[in-house]
Amino acid sequence: MAAPTPTPEPEHAPDDPKAARVKARAEAKAKSAALADVLAPVKTRTVLAQFVQILASAATVVPFIGIVELGRTLLAPGPTDTGRVWLVVWLVVGGLAARALFAFLALAITHFADLDLQAQLRIRIADKLGRLPLGWFSRTSSGAVRKSVQNDVADLHYLVAHAQVEATAAVLSPIFALIYCFILDWRLGLLAIATVPLYALTYSYMARDLTAEMEKMDTGVARISATIVEFIAGVAVVKTFGQTGKAHRRFIDAADEFNDDFAGYMGPMLRVQAITTVLISAPLILLVNLGVGYWLVDKGWVTPIELVGSTLIAMILPTALLTVSTAVHTRQQASAAALRIADLLAEPELAVPENPQVPAGHDVRIENVHFTYPPRLGMPSGVKALDGVSVELAEGTVTALVGPSGSGKSTLATLLPRFGDPDSGSVRIGGVDVRDIAPTELYRHVGFVLQDVQLLTMSVRDNIRLGRPEATEEQVHDAARAARIHERILELSDGYDTVVGDGAHFSGGEAQRVSIARALLADTPILVLDEATAFADPESEAQIQQAIGALMVGRTVLVIAHRLGSITHADNIVVLDRGRVVEQGRQDELVANGGLYASMWASYEAGTTRQDEKIALGAVGSDEVAR
Ligand SMILES: Nc1ncnc2c1ncn2[C@@H]1O[C@H](COP(=O)(O)OP(=O)(O)OP(=O)(O)O)[C@@H](O)[C@H]1O
Known about the structure:
The chain is α/β, with parallel strands linked by helices. Among the domains are: 228 residues, ABC transporter type 1, transmembrane domain (ABC transporter transmembrane region fold); 203 residues, Rossmann fold (3-Layer(aba) Sandwich). Helix content is 63%, strand content 10%.
C-alpha cells in the first residue's frame, strides 16, 4: 500500500495573530539592525551633534527665565532696579545667541556627516554592484536598483541631517523648560504637561497598526518605479503593436494597488492626527493653564507672572511633540530605506577564490550541473532550470545548444562566464573549476556575445576596445572589418569618435556586429554566443553570420542556436529539454536518431520551404523573411 502523502504545510498560517506579531517583531529588529549598520559610519558625529544640541536646548530656557525675572523686577514695589533689568536683558540676548549658535553647529555637523554618508553608501553600492554575479542583474529590475541608489540613499538625508538633532531638541527643550516650571512651583509644572499623557496614550493606541500600512505603501512605490522603467524600456514595441492598453495594465495595477495602500495608510493617519492634535492645540493648552492657573493664583500659591512664564512654556509643547512624531515617522521611512540598502549590500557576491588558479587549456567540462533560480515575487519556490547536465566542449570546437524555449539553454551557457554558480556539479575550464579562477582571469578566457547587446555611451572606438583598452587603432579597425561593421562606422559623422547614443544610432543587427567586433578584439579563447538574429534583415543577417564565422575561428565556442540551419556544421549539437540533455551528437547522427532534434529539424526544414515558396510568390516582406 502506498504511503499516504503528507498534507503540505501552508507557507503562512493565515490570520494567526501570534505568528504575525513574532514576524513583525523580527522584522522590526532586522530593520533596527539594518539602520544601525547603515548609519554606523556617522554614529560618532551624530552623537556629537546631539550633545551640542543638548547645550542649545538648555539655552532655550533662558528667555523664559528672563521673562519671569523681568516681570518680578518690574512689578516689585518701589523704584525699578534698572541695573537688574539690563542684566536680565543681556542674559536673554546671550541665551538666544548661544541657542542659535549651538543649534547651527549641531545641524552643520549632521549635514556634513550626511554628505559623507551618502557618498560612502553610493560608493559601497556601486562597489557591491560590481561584485554581484551578472545573473543578479537579469533577475533584478533596473527600477529597484535605481530606487536603492537614488531614493533610498536620499531618504536617509532627513534622518541623519535633521531628525536626530531635531528630536533631541524637541524632547530636551521642553524638558529643560519644564524643570524650570517645577522650580517655580510643582503645581505649575504639572499644569503645563496636563494634556500630554492624554495625547501620548491616544496617539500610540490609534497609530499602533500604521507601520505595516506604511511598509505596504513603500513596497508599492518600488513596484510602480519598476513597472515605469520596464514600460519605458519597452515602449517602442508596445506602441508598434498597438498594445498600449495591455502594457499599461501592469503599471495601472501597480498604481491602483498603491492607491489602495495609500488610502489604507492616509485615512487612519489623518484620523489619528485630527483627534490627537486637538489634545495639544494652543487654545486647549491656554484654556487649561489659564483656567486652573487662575485658581492657583487666587489661592496665593503662585504669582501671576509665574503663571505667565509657565503658560508660555506649556505653549511650546505642541510644536515639540509634533517634531517628535515627525521624527518617529521619518525614522520608520528611513528604516525601510536602510533595510533595502542593507539587503542589497548583503546580496551574495560572486565568491572570489582565495587561491586562484589559472586554467591549463581551453576545453570546458560541465559535470552534473543543477541550477535553480532563487524564489522571487509570485514564484516562491524558485525555478529549476538545469537538472543534472553534463557536456564536454573539446578545445577549439563548436558546440551548439538547441532545445525548446525555456529548456535551459541560456542558463547553461551563462554558467561559463559565471552569471551564476550551479547549486551542485561543476563547470571546469582547462581542468579548473570556474569558481577557482579569479574573475579578471576568467574574463580573459571567456567572452560572450548575448542577445541583449549593451553599447555604452562612449565613442564607438572605446565600445569596441572595452575588453582590451590598449588595442591600437589598426587592431580596432581590423576587428570592425572582420565583424562587417567598419564601413558603417566610417559613415558616422565622426567615424570611430562618434559617441553611441549621441551621433551613432545603430540598428539591432549593427549593434550586434559592434559587439562581435568587441569580442573579436578581446580575443578570448572561449566564447559563449547567442546567435539570435531577430532584428536583422536578410542582408544584415548574412553579415552577422559572416562576422560570427570570423569570431568562431580557432576558439572553443558554445553557441545558443535559434535557427538550426546555421549550426549544421557544429562539432557537437546538444539537445536540451526541461533542463536535461536528451541527446547530443553531430547533425547527421541526430537526424538519423529520429529523436527530439530530428523532429525540430523536420519542422525547421518545412518552415524554410514554406518561406522560400512565399518569397517566390512575393507574399512576404523582408522583415518577415528575417524572422
Ligand atoms: N531570471 C530568472 N528567474 C527565474 N526563472 C528564470 C529566470 N531566467 C530563466 N528562468 C527560467 O528557467 C528556465 C530556463 O530558462 P532559459 O532562459 O535558460 O531557457 P532557454 O532555453 O534559454 O529559453 P529561450 O530559448 O526562450 O531563451 C525557464 O523555465 C525560465 O522560465
